[in-house]
Amino acid sequence: MELVPPTFTSCVSTLRLMGLIGLSALAEVNAAPLPSSFGVWDRGEAMDPKVYPFVRGTACDAPWDSVEKKPGVYDWSTMDQAIERAYRDKISLYFGFEAGPSTPTWVYEKGVPRVLTNDQRHAAKFPVYPYYLSPEYKTYYHRFLTAVAKHIASYPQEKRERIAFIQVKTGCTGDECPYKGEAVDPRYSLSPGDKAWKQFRLETFALYSQLFGQESELKISLLLNGVAPDAEEGSRKDHVEEWNWATTHLTAGFGIKNGALSRGHHLSGERSATSDFLHYLVAPKGLTLFRRSEMDQSWTRPFFQLNVPLNFYWGAMNALNSGQSVWDITKVAIRVSKEQGFDYSFYFFNKYAGQIHPATATDAFCALHQGLDAADTVAYPEATFGQASQRNVERMEKIRAAYAKYGAANDDKQALSYGQVQQRGDQSGFNDVGWDIWPGNYSRLLDQIDPDATSIPLWRVGGPITPRSPIYSRFARGFEHTSGKDAMYFKLHDGLSQDAKPKVMSITVVWYDGQPGSTWKLDYDAGTPTMKTAVTVTGKGDKQWHHETVTLRDAVFRHGGTRGADLALVNTDATDDIFSLIEVHRGEPQQPALRPPTDYRIDSGYGKGTKYGPDGKAQKKTDKKK
Questions:
Q1: Parallel, antiparallel, or unpaired: how do β-strands 433-434 and 372-373 relate?
Q2: Model's pTM, two decimal places?
């Protein structure tokens, strides 16, 4: 325990008085999280990385009411234990210091108004909130954060280096709203769009930056939620002011939070959430961001439980495609991941999460996929498919019908009009049409050239998706010989291959062996006038997915192949072949090779999932484990 006298006059004088006491002697520790720390993290539940080797980091929530239960008396034990564990296990750590509904009760006794809301769903968890604009609240809150910064400064440098970032939490949890629901007393009314609330948030951003960020001696990166550039989606414009502040003041970069992207695929809004930020996250030119998301209990809901390994895999693909850096996973999911066959997705995520800059990247991938985005009026004109509206299920069904011959289907038509939160809770089937969903391949530093002109999209390869369907069967692309689509072309991002010298590169192609005797080949850019053949493959027709790996010792990869390609999958007969994933690795193949498991247990206790109840909470499960 550390006792700090609680005497002060105002938040401004407090900062001037306490300022960055004890921080001035610090050496620079870290300017941004290292890409090597990017990957799967636990959510602060102390999962042993020796047991779960894919765990690269951990979270530590140190709520105000737990740290400062009495005025000026600080209990740092939670923080201290977390940083000791990170240092001992050689993993990364981020801190969060929640206030809002986690404000100590003594603060209200000092004159801060208690705010009750009309929200029933969270009433037990968040019975009362502070009035954030109260001068007394700001004074005590700022004093608390200043004390936190001073304590972090007391850690030895080798331990501080384990802190990857601090998540800024200005309101209720990390959701960045002042309250859940509306204030019962109108005097304390605040909504996320109110000017006064925005001003409070910006004041808090500035304080965090001064205490912890690049203008401090600690130089710890900050992660923000509720910031967004000016985009077409009107609702996202609510956070433009915060975005402008961050990009003006946090010029060394910062983190953003987006929880939904790793919680599934074909979730409403994922296209905008990806497009708005991707150029800051992968191969950035200038401002560089990092992105955090978490897996909550969505994986126990009906949709995810249709096939858990498959959904974790495509959730990882969705996240990597959007530039996600850190994926927080719950304790139970980590514990059962190996026996239930989805730890492969965690290792795959780790492999690619840190592949940010083409010049230093060691790996690239392209997972073949097409999402039928009903919000896209160019691809699906309203004159043909009907008015573009998230509620227009008829339009979505017309789009699906246009691709039905390739396996497209909507298993849960009611869910087509759901928002992403309700999708995660209540959707009970796979839908290939959605609203504002990602339309193309999921990739990192490897792109397909003119996919629609050279190949066809495929869904549900091998038949309907069951709990045992291979992860690759959800999406694929294939040749269509009858329409002249007999080759797929791929190119690496500029900079990944920096000169015309021969290089050692390992290529892995995941393909479906659907027809006996069917043949295809892999060609590559070797710097010669025509592309060179690496391998020719003949199918046996076993209806299984296979990994074909070949090592090239004279790869040039300067976009010198057909259509400017570095790689090409070429049909060599009249039979169509199907592919799901292409990976490129600098150097010899990695050993042991990373492959999805074929033998795993399906937990019948989670088999049907649990929908949200009428109050938005999960209904109790009645199934028992067999």
A1: parallel
A2: 0.91
pLDDT in tens, 455-469: 999 999 999 999 999
> Could you give the CA distance from residue 213 to residue 166 in angstroms, rounded to a whole number?
9
Return the SS3 of 245. Answer: helix
Q: Which residues of 382-415 are buried (b: 16+ CB within 10 A; e: fewer)?
A: eeebbebebebbebbbbbbeebeebbbbbbbeeb
How far is the C-alpha of 523 from the C-alpha of 508, rounded, in Å? 13
Residues 289 and 227: their CA atoms lie apart, in Å, by 12
3-state secondary structure of 417: helix
User: How do beta strands 503-512 and 578-586 pair?
Assistant: antiparallel
Q: pLDDT tens digits for 272-308?
A: 999 999 999 999 999 999 999 999 999 999 999 999 9
Q: What is the DSSP string of 181-237?
A: S-BSSGGG---TT-HHHHHHHHHHHHHHHHHTSTTSSS--EEEESS---S-SSGGGG
Residues 285, 444: Cα–Cα separation, whole Å: 16
Cα distances from 444 to residues 11, 347, 414, 584, in angstroms, run: 46, 15, 33, 10
| Nearest Cα residue to 262 out of 315, 199, 326, 184 | 315
Calculate the alpha carbon distances from 179 to 66, 200, 232 in Å.
20, 14, 27
3-state DSSP percent of the chain in helix, strand and coil, to 5: 30, 25, 45
Full DSSP string of 498-537:
-SSS-EEEEEEEEEE--SEEEEEEEEE--SSSSPEEEEEE
Q: Give Dmax over CA atoms of the chain in angstroms.
A: 83
